[in-house]
User: Fold this.
Amino acid sequence: MSEAIKALTMPKWGLSMKEGKVASWLMQEGTAISPGNEVLEVETEKISSAVEASEGGVLRRIVAQEGETLPVGALLGVIAGANDTSEAIDAFVAEFQKNYVPPADGDDDAGPKTEVVEIKGRAIRYLKQGDGGTPLILIHGFGGDLNNWLFNQESLAAKRTVIAFDLPGHGQSSKQVGNANLGELTQVVHDVMDALGVTKAHLAGHSMGGAVALEFALAHPGRVASLTLIASAGLGPEINGGYIDGFIEATGRRDIKPHLEQLFANAELVSRQMINDILAYKRLDGVDAALRGLRDKIFPSGKQATVLRDRLGSLSMPIQVIWGEGDAIVPAKHAQGLPASVKVSVLKGAGHMPQMEAAAEVNKLIEAQLG
Amino acid sequence: MQLSKADLLRAYRMMKTIREFEERLHVEFATGEIPGFVHLYAGEEASATGFCMHLDGRDKIASTHRGHGHSIAKGCDVDAMMAEIYGKKAGLCGGKGGSMHIADLDKGMLGANGIVGGGPPLICGAGLAAKVLKTGGVAIAFVGDGGFNQGTTAESLNLASVWRLPCLFVVENNGYAEATSSKYSVSCDDFTDRAAAYSMPGIAVDGHDFFAVYEAAGEAIKRARSGGGPSLIEVKLNRYYGHFEGDAQTYRGVDEVKNIRATKDCLMLFRKRVEGAKLVDAAELNKIDADVLAQIENAVKKAKAAPKPTAADLMTDVYVSY
Amino acid sequence: MARKITYQQAINEALSQEMSRDPTVIIMGEDVAGGAGTDGEQEAWGGVLGVTKGLYKKFGDRVMDTPITESAFIGAAVGAATAGLRPVAELMFIDFMGVCLDQIFNQAAKFRYMFGGKAETPVVIRTMYGAGFRAAAQHSQCLYPVFTHIPGLKVVMPATPYDAKGLLIQAIRDNDPVIFCEHKVLYTLEGDVPEEPYTIPFGEASVVREGKDVTIVTLGRMVHMATDAADNLAKQGIKCEVIDLRTTSPIDEDTILESVENTGRLVVVDEAHPRCNIATDVSALVADKAFDSLKAPIKMVTGPHVPVPFSDVLEDLYIPNAAKIEAAVRSVMGKKG
Assistant:
C-alpha cells in the first residue's frame, strides 16, 4: 500500500503561541498510527499537551529531537505508508525544510483574531474560527475565558464555524455581571447568538459554562442542535467550595498555585505563564467583584444553587456528558444516573479540565456528536 | 563708575565670547554629537559680565545649570569648557561633569549646578571663608527665578544677613522656571521685595543693559568687600533659547524672542552706546567679533578631535586616593 | 491584551484612569503641565519628558505646576495626603530627593507609626532614576536603596509597561507613602498592557524566566540586561532563573529563597552603587536564610562606587550590562571566561 507522505508539524495552541518544545515522543519510529493518536508531548510557555496525529499511517521519521524548541509549523515527524522508501521520506523532509518559513514576529496579524461585540452596554470578546455548517458555541467556566478552548477550537473549526467567547466578568469582556446568576449568563448566550446572527447552534459548556448551556437549552430548545457538557455544573449539588473561595481570595503566585493545581490530574501542567495569565486577569478592576457575585449566586456556601439533572430528560436534542475521572472540583459521580439518552464519557487521566488535559479525546467526542 | 576703554573692550569681548559659544553650541547640539542636557545662556550675557568684570582671584561665584556664561566671565578656559561639553578627557572636569557641572575652582568658579537652588548655601560658605581668612574676597550666587523660590535660597539669605557675609545673591530673572512663568511661580512682583525681610538692600536692574548691571554690581560688591554685608540684586533679562536644547518652547509667545533680539539685545545696546558716545570704534569691536568667532571655531575643532577618557579614568577622583 | 504601549504611556494611562475614578487624586510637580502663567501653550511640556502630557487637558487644575521648590511641594503632597487627597507628586529626578528628603523620610514615612497607627499618608512620589542619558552625576543616580532603608516607605521599581501601569494604580490606591521609581531609559520600551485598570500587589516578585542552574535577582532596567544575559547563557546550556523584584520594600523574600534553594547559586544585579544597595541586601538575605543551599559564593553585579560620569565612554563602563552578568553567572557555575 502506498499512502501519501504527510508532515506532522508543531501545532499552534492559542493565539499567542509562537514556538513549542518537544518534551518527549510517545511513539517510536515504525509505530502504526490512527488519526487522533497522541504522538508526542509538546511544552509551551503556557501549557504542555500531546500532539495528535490528524491522519493515519506509520510514524516513519522522527525529525525533531526531544528538548528542541521549534516554531509553529515546523516539521516534527513524518507519517507515511509502511512501504514508502526511506529515499522518498528523505526527499519529503528535504522538500519540506526547503519551503518552510517560520512565522515572523509581526505575523500575529495573520492568524485568527478575537473581536468584540457590544451588547446591552457590555463588551463581549469572542473568537470565531472556521466556516459553515451549524455553528458550535463554546462556553467556558468560572474564572476561565475563551483560551480554555485553545486545544479544541481550531481542530473543531475544520468542519464548521466555532465561536468561543468570554462570559461577562471574564477574560476581556466587560466585568459587569448584572444579577450574577445563571439566568443572566444564559441571556448573554442568547444575546451573543443574536448579535452574531446564529439562530441555532451546537453548545459545548465547561463547568459553570455547562450549566449555562444546559439552562439555555431548557429555555430555548429550538435553538440548540446538541449539547456537550464537560465537567459540568448543574448536575448535582456538590462543588469544591474550597477551590472557588481559594481562587477568589488568592492574590499572589504562591497562594493561587495550589488551587490551580486542583484543576488538573497532572498538577505539573500549571505553568508559570498560566499562573501569570490568571493573576493578570484577576487583577483587572471589577473581576474580584464579578467572581464574588457569581460565587454568591451560583455556588453559595460551597453548593450549587441550581441542579437541572431532573430536566435533562425533557430535552430532545443529542446530549453528551464528558468528565475527567479525577475531577477535584465537580465530582465525576454527577455523570452517573443520567437518562439513558445522554451519552456519558468519563476520561481516565484527566481532572476538571478534560478539554485541555485530554484534548484529543474530547475533540473526538465532540466531532462524533456533531457529525 | 568709570570704565576705561580697555575695560569696555574687555567687557564686549566677554559678552561676545559667551554669545558665540552658546550660538555655536545651539548649532552643534542639533547634530547629535553633544551628549546630555545643555542649557544655553544666550541673551543673558550682560549679567555675568556686569558682575564678573568687578571680580578678581579672591572672589568666588556659584552658578546654575545655565552655567556657561558665568564660567566664561569668571575666566574659565574656553577650549577646556568646550572639550568638557563634548565629554573629552581634556575637558575642564576631565569629561566627568559635562555642561551642567562645569567648574574651575582655581578660577573661583564653584560650579554650574544640576540642583536648582544648590548654589546659595555654598556661597554663604565661600563668603564665610573670605571673612574668616580676611581675603577681602566676595562671593556671588547666581540663581534663576526658579531657584530663587527654593528653601535653600531663603535660608541662605537669612544666614548671610545674620552673619553679615560678603555675599551677593543675584536673581537672573528670565521669566521662566523651565516652562513655568515667573508670573505664576513667584509670589511677589519683584524679587527685591524679599530683600527687606532679610534686612539687606534689594536692587533691580535691567539685564539687557550692561552698564546698569555693572554699576549696581559695583556698588553691592564694594559694600560687601567693606564689611557692609550681603545684597540681593534682581537682573531682569531674557533667554534666547529653551530651558534646555530640544525644548520646543511652545509656552512662549509668538515672536517673543525675535522681538527681544531686535530691540533689547545686550550686545546691540552695548555697541549703540559705546559707538554713539564715540568711546570705541566699530572697527575695534568688529575685530573682536572676528577674533571670537575664530576662537570658538578653534575650540570646537579641538574638542571634536580630542580623545575621550579611558576605562582607567572611571575610578579616579572619587577620593584623595582610592 | 495584544495592545502594545510604551512604559511612558502605561504610566500616563494609569494616572488618567485613577484620576477619572477618584476625584481626590491630584498631580503636582515641576512642569507636569508646563506653561503655567505663560503667554503660550498651558500644557507645553506635560512633564520634562512628556510623561504626564494630556492630563492637564483632561483634568485641568487637578494637574498642578509647582514652583521649583521640592521641599514645599513634596511636603505639601504629604500634608494633603494626610488630609483627604491622594496626591501623586512628581520629583523630576530622584537626585532631587536631596532637596526635600526631610519631608519624605522624617515626615511621610513616620506618620503612621509615630502617631500610633492613626495616620494614613496615601501619597505617591513618582521619580525618574538611572544612568544612560549622559545626564551626569546629579541626574542619573539610583537612590532607591536610600528609600528602601526607611521603614514606612514603599519602594516600587517597575521594569515593564505592564508592571508600570499595575504597580502605579496599586501605589495610588495604597494607603502608605510610595516612592515610584521610573527608569528614564525604559520610557520608550513597548509591551502588552491591558486597557482596563488593574493592580499588581506590592511584595510579589515576578519570575521573568525559569531555570535550574543559577538564580539572578534583579530589578528595574537591569531586568532586561539580565534577560539578555540569560538568553545568551541558555545557548551555552546554562539555565538562569531571572527574578524581577518589582518592589524593594516590601521585598519578596520567599520567591528569592525558594529559587536559590532550587538552583543553589545566586547572582544579584543592581544598577545602584555597590555599597548598601539592593544587591547587598538580597545577598545578605540569602546568606542569612539560605546559606546551606548555596553551592557557590554569591556574586553581585552593580555600578561602581563612583558618581555617574558624564562622558559617554565612562557612563557606558559604569552601567552593568549583559556581558558582566554573563561573566558573573559563569563564575558561580565554576566556569572561566
